[in-house]
Structures are given as structure tokens and as C-alpha cells.
Specification:
The protein has 20 helices and twelve strands. By secondary structure, the protein is of the alpha/beta class. A five-stranded parallel β-sheet has the order 2-3-4-1-5, with helices on both faces. Strands 9-10-11-12 form a four-stranded mixed β-sheet, sandwiched between helices. The chain has a three-stranded antiparallel β-sheet with strand order 6-8-7. Helix 5 packs parallel to helix 7, helix 16 crosses helix 17 and helix 16 runs antiparallel to helix 19. The radius of gyration is 27 Å and the shape is elongated.
């Protein structure tokens, strides 16, 4: 009988003692802890198991070997020394000011001190932290585990001044660690975001950022091999329920939820949150995306006039996506660190990373939210409109298709913050991107305009859109540039469509087609 899935169970102790399924990551953890000293930072998107990892480290350093029976670490050379542990979890609190953060830190330190029978007298949270470390070090060198270090900052990111004050509090807090290095065995900080060394981590000059290290690329998330080895019974049941063979089911699950990569080697992993919920409900849904809407990110994309058409295929160096500062927020590092983009490849010669959407879940949901924010159709209704668009194309009913397309533009505000042409191009792009995702069609854009190809089972559509232009000229452009040549031998009907969008009327003003 299969072990139950650990849905909603976030501590290692609860998983083991509750008999839940645990994917053994202790071999990689041993790589992290076997040295005598270390100060590490590890970033991953939300819902990736950071809290479970921290609780696992806590049980290891407390010497609770009995919890690890049957796991790799139990049979390893690890000696299981016991260390006092300071575990601070910022995800449990929502602070609204730097003063509030100081109170939370002080109360947390007092609670830990009481648990250990230590008096941490001091007028500030900094002196309390120092006294706690010194007091615990009388037993053995101290282990410090800080989970979601950046949550107080991210909770206030839209108030830049307050976020900066919160960062300053954290910066001073971590400086205490540097001054007491002789009393400390191991420090591990997790979070979503990485601020540069001149920011929150400037007090930790010996910090090792292992977020992009090949050795720890699969420390969180499930590899394909781990999924097949640990979830076999659930996968079999899912395949039977969907009346598919296992190979087909695995391929579909992989397309939906695999694809996250966190190193140059680019071994991909599944988001554990989505995979566990999928196997429990046996239904494809946007589990991870629905657990947190990227409202601030969407707002930043609009404010900075960011060209979202390039999100499919970005080639950048590491500095472009690995760090950022509160006073200079940039879209690209936020998209990567929050998990909406991931590493798709690495060019060693040029030292460039290729970024893109990790999987179908993220691309479809993120694109749909973007379309809801840029366009006039409520995002909750977008899916229905898209399928009606697809049906109209399937029936070769272009009049209905363009009538439906108009719905996405009817309520666009007149005071849009970015140039009209870019705005409309963005909406065209998002619509056809989603159509392509739904029907697994070939969808392309090129040459600075929305030149779109949609390939159906028996028909290939080639669209050229013009703003305040001439549909005849748009049709002529398709023919002049030879867009249809690539499909001439497909055996399918080719329909060329030149379309004019009138920015005054805010709608499709005319189109011309030619069938080949």
C-alpha cells in the first residue's frame, strides 16, 4: 500500500512520524553539512519545500537520528553531533514596519531562550541575539536556520521606503552572526529573492550563495527519476483513470509541471506543490499558480513598459536575473526568482543563460492573467472566449472570429501608460500565445509585428495585423515575404488574413483573406 501524500505537512518530523511519503534528499543535504563550517544562502520560488528542508536540517543538527532510519543519511559517515539550533521562520509573521519586525525578532529570540533556560537580557534585539548565541554556545557551536528571510521585505515591497528600513533591520541582525563566527557551526538562510551584497547580506562577507550551484540543483523539487521511483502507484492510478498508457500520462504530467531548472547543468525538477496536488486530485490544474497571484509583478510589467513578447526566449548573463535592489526593482530578476521564468539552457562560451517559462502550468496561467490585465475581458472569462476563438477558426468562420477578438479591445482605457502600438501588439500576442497553448499549434511572432501562424488539423492560418493601416497591404505583405511557403507541402488549406485594427474605434476595422 502506498504511503499517503504529505499535502500540507511542512515539517520533517511530522512527515516521518505520520508515515507520509518522503522523497529522500539526505544525500544532497550531506554534501551541504559535512564541512565543519559554513554560511549558506539558498533561494527558490514559493511552495518549493524550503520550510521542509529547514526542518530537516534542524532535526539533523539536533542529532535525532531515529527519524532518519532507512534514509541515505542514516547509513552515511555522518557522525550525528548535537548542536543547539536557533530556528527563525519569518513566514509565520506579516510585519508592516521596521519597528514591527524588531518586535517579532525580539519575541522569537525570547521564546527560544526560554526553551533553553537562558536569560537573554538586552535592550535591543541585536544584544538579545548576541546573548542567545553566546549562551547556547556553552553547549556546542550553534546552528542558525532562518527560513524566508526576505518575507518582511516582500510583504512591504510596494512601500519602497519602509521596505528599505526593514532591510536595514535585517542587515544589522545578520551582522551579529559575522561578529560571533567562533561560536557558530552552520548558518542557512532561505528565501525567494536575492538582494545584492550591498544590501541585506553585506554583513555576511563569508556567505556562500548556492542557489545556482550544480551540486544543489535538485535539493528541492522532484527529478523525473524521483517521481517515477516514489510515486509509481499514484501514477499508475492516474493513467488508468485517464484511460491512457503510463508513457503518455508521464509525458503529459511532465509538460504541465516539470521544467524548473536552477543551474547551468539544467537538470529539471517538478514543482512539488503542484505534483502532490495533481496526484491527490488526479486532475490537471494550475495548482502552484493559483496559490499566489503575481499582482505586484503584473503592475511592475505595466509600469516599466516591459516587452513581454521576449519572455519565451531570453539570453542574459547571470547578473541580469540573480539579484536586484529595493530602490531599483527590475522585472527580469523578479520573474526568475519568483518562478515564472526558469533556466532553459546555458551557453558556456558566451556565459549566457537562456530563460523561459518552466512549463505549461506557469506559461498558460501567467499569460492568461496578463491578458486579463492588459485586455478588456475579465481573466475569469478569458478561457471561454479563447475556446470560442478556436472553434471559429476550426469552422473557418472568420467573421465570428474577429467579432470575438473585438471583445478583448472594447474596454481598453484611453489613458494607457504605454504606447498604443505596443499595447495592442501585446494583447494580440497574448491571445495567440494562449490559442497556441490550448491547441498545441505552432504560433510565431516576428519582425516587430504580430505575424502569427496558427496550424490546425486541416487548416493553417497566417495573420498579419496592422494598426490604422490597410488590410490589403497587410495581406500583400504576407505574400511578399513568403510566409506561406513553409506550409505549401503540408497538404492543408492555407488561409492568409490581413487585418486592420482601428485605434480610434478600438476594434477590427477590416480584413482581407486569400485561400491557397
Amino acid at each position: 500500500m502506498s504511503k499517503p501524500l504529505p499535502i500540507g505537512v511542512q515539517t520533517f518530523r511530522d512527515i516521518i512520524q505520520g508515515g507520509f511519503l518522503y522523497v529522500d534528499k539526505t544525500r544532497i543535504i550531506h554534501e551541504l553539512i559535512h564541512d565543519t563550517k559554513g554560511v549558506f544562502f539558498f533561494s527558490r520560488p514559493r511552495r518549493f519545500g524550503k520550510s521542509l528542508l529547514v526542518s530537516t536540517l534542524e532535526e539533523i543538527f539536533l542529532g535525532h537520528r531515529q527519524l532518519f532510519q532507512g534514509l541515505w543519511l542514516d547509513d552515511s559517515p555522518y557522525a550525528w553531533p548535537q548542536h543547539p539550533v536557533i530556528h527563525i521562520d519569518f513566514s509565520r509573521h506579516r510585519v508592516h514596519s521596521a519597528a514591527g519586525l524588531e518586535i517579532v525578532i525580539g519575541e522569537t529570540l525570547q521564546r527560544i531562550a526560554v526553551d533553553h533556560g537562558i536569560d537573554v537580557h538586552g535592550h535591543t534585539h541585536l544584544s538579545q541575539f548576541e546573548n542567545l548565541i553566546r549562551g547556547l554556545a556553552a553547549q556546542n557551536q550553534v546552528v542558525i536556520l532562518i527560513d524566508e528571510y526576505d518575507k518582511p521585505i516582500l510583504d512591504n515591497i510596494e512601500d519602497r521606503a519602509e521596505a528599505q528600513r526593514i532591510q536595514d533591520v535585517l542587515k544589522g541582525f545578520y551582522t551579529v552572526i559575522k561578529s560571533l563566527d567562533a561560536h557558530i557551526r552552520f548558518v542557512f538562510l532561505t528565501g525567494i529573492s536575492k538582494f545584492s551584497r550591498v544590501g541585506v547580506f553585506s554583513g555576511l562577507n563569508n556567505l556562500q550563495d548556492i542557489s545556482l550551484h550544480d551540486r544543489y540543483a535538485t535539493l528541492l523539487g522532484f527529478t523525473q527519476a524521483e517521481v517515477e521511483q516514489n510515486f509509481g502507484a499514484y501514477l499508475h492510478d492516474f493513467a488508468v483513470r485517464n484511460e491512457q498508457d503510463l508513457v503518455t500520462t508521464l509525458a503529459e504530467i511532465r509538460a504541465w509541471y516539470n521544467g524548473f531548472c536552477f543551474s547551468r547543468r539544467c537538470e529539471t525538477v517538478y514543482n512539488p506543490f503542484s505534483l502532490l496536488l495533481l496526484l491527490d486530485s488526479q486532475d490537471f490544474r494550475n495548482y502552484w499558480f493559483e496559490s499566489g497571484t503575481p499582482t505586484f509583478l503584473i503592475k511592475l510589467i505595466q509600469q516599466q513598459n516591459y516587452d513581454i513578447q521576449q519572455l519565451d526566449d531570453l539570453n542574459v548573463d547571470e547578473l541580469a536575473f540573480s539579484t536586484y535592489e529595493i530602490d531599483r526593482l527590475q522585472v527580469l530578476p523578479l520573474l526568475y526568482q519568483t518562478g515564472y521564468l526558469t533556466i532553459k539552457g546555458y551557453d558556456a562560451q558566451r556565459q549566457l543563460y537562456r530563460l523561459g517559462y518552466p512549463n505549461r502550468e506557469v506559461e498558460k496561467a501567467f499569460t492568461q492573467v496578463l491578458l486579463g490585465r492588459f485586455g478588456a475581458v475579465d481573466e475569469s472569462l478569458t478561457g471561454g472566449y479563447l475556446w470560442r476563438l478556436i472553434d471559429a477558426l476550426g469552422e473557418r468562420n472568420l467573421a465570428q472570429f474577429f467579432e470575438l477578438l473585438d471583445a478583448f479591445f472594447a474596454g481598453i482605457p484611453y489613458d494607457i501608460q504605454i504606447g498604443q502600438e505596443r499595447y495592442y501588439q501585446t494583447i494580440f500576442y497574448l491571445i495567440f500565445r494562449l490559442i497556441g497553448l490550448e491547441i498545441e499549434a505552432e504560433v510565431r511572432t516576428s519582425r516587430g509585428r504580430i505575424d502569427t501562424v496558427v496550424a490546425l488539423a486541416d487548416t493553417v492560418y497566417l495573420f498579419e495585423f496592422k494598426l490604422d493601416g490597410d488590410p490589403d497591404a497587410a495581406l500583400a505583405q504576407i505574400q511578399a515575404r513568403g510566409y506561406a511557403e513553409a506550409y505549401a507541402q503540408s497538404g492543408k488549406t492555407l488561409i492568409l488574413a490581413g487585418v486592420n485594427f482601428d485605434t480610434t474605434l478600438r476594434g477590427i476595422a477590416g480584413w482581407q483573406t486569400k485561400t491557397l
